[in-house]
Amino acid sequence: MPEKGHYKQGKDIAWQLWGKGVFDSKESFFEALEQANQQTSSKFMELALLSFTNYASPVLDLKTRCLIQVAVMTALGQEEELQRYIMAALNIGVTEEQIMEAIDQLILYCGLPKARGALSTAQKTFAEHKTS
Length: 132
Description:
CATH topology of the largest domain: AhpD-like
Low-confidence stretches: none
CATH superfamily of the largest domain: AhpD-like
Oligomer: single chain
Number of domains: 2
CATH architecture of the largest domain: Up-down Bundle
Radius of gyration: 15 Å
């Protein structure tokens, strides 16, 4: 896979979201990405990283984009993906209070069961983030 352009930009954004605090260095994070790439379709990984280049647009900052992802995963009831985006949001400085407020905002729109699941996922993720 090429190491320039959109692919490199996507890797750098993925590092900001999920690599810091988990991996010792950017290099070890990128090695883990390459291992994941070998275990999945290389086209899938390339498209996933390319999708992160959208996060680099100056129209919305990275924190706002992460809160949007938290809202979408909450509304869809995708708790596993929600956990990843909450962790990413915390990694870039979104506060627990902001995340909880985003989830609370959705109670009327996506229903109490999905919001309750999201709140539970958030609490677990906050605890995990504090120990990492």
